[in-house]
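Hello forum,

I keep getting stuck at the same step: I have a sequence, I want structure tokens, and every attempt I make locally crashes halfway through. Rather than fight my setup again tonight, could one of you with a working pipeline run this one for me? It's a single chain of 333 residues.
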Amino acid sequence: MSNEVINVLITGAAGQIAYSLIFNVCKGDMFGLDQRIKLHLLDIPQMVDSLKGVVMEIQDGAYPLITDIVTTADVKEAFTGVHYAILVGAMPRREGMERADLLKANAAIFKVQGKALAEHSDKNVKVLVVGNPANTNALIAQVSANGIPKENFTCLTRLDQNRAKSQIALKAGVNVKDVHNVIIWGNHSSTQYPDYRCGYINLSTGKTPISTAIKDEKWLQGEFISTVQKRGAAVIAARKLSSAASAAKAITDHMHDWVLGTAEGEYVSMGVYSDGSYGVPEGIIFSFPVKCANGKYTIVQGLQMDDFSKNLINITTEELVAEKTTALKFLNE
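Reply #2:
Ran it on my machine without issues. Output:
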């Protein structure tokens, strides 16, 4: 077991996503089976008593990797010395709320948390924003965190990738572990572009492009894309609650691969600060295919773009640019 202890912050820690996520961290699914962890759990003041019950469950689980637990509603206490920050908590969209109202409310939250990262956390802290609108919330945190490298800010699109892989596996009649390199481009919203073109399936006959294994272009360019785009809403409609366990699994996957690396030849989707790749403007958090090694990610380069893909990428880019403009206006008020 590693002698070094890492400090891991989870915000919105009394919520349903965090309730699934925390125990993945405790088991070693995120950072490895020998990595010791001090948990920092942050929530709003009225939820702190609920966190006491979560702590009891962690204690009763007898997880050897957990060395200490901080539960607090104080931002400074929560962010102090943090190496990894998983920002789950955000203002949810309520009935009748305009998107601009949502962006305004979350700009205030993530401005405070960005400043806290800069002032109190480790200077190489790695940040994953989950709370929606995740891409733009991550950008607000990044802009507000002077001194923290911009490439250390990411948002979650791994849930969308996992959903896309599952839909391909179901259609092809294979196990999801045999589906590789499905990509999510753009915003974690209904404009995202789930892209099968570079993916493949491991069949008994060998590595097979998805377009060869699934000879149904109409489905691949229609129902497949719309199903993934609308999956979050479908879960809410069926369950009356948003995705929790699947979101926690995706958060775990995202951080595991970022910290411990991706397999050779494997792409994963992460919302990252755009460097201009594929014509996406710099200065937005955009989901790209990436590879990870030694705690760093690199955007996969040289993938071919057809007109169909360029159009969908333009749509999601335009949405993110508009969100950025709105959010930064609120940030400067």
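The first helix runs from residue 16 to 27. If your local run keeps crashing, start a new thread with the error log.
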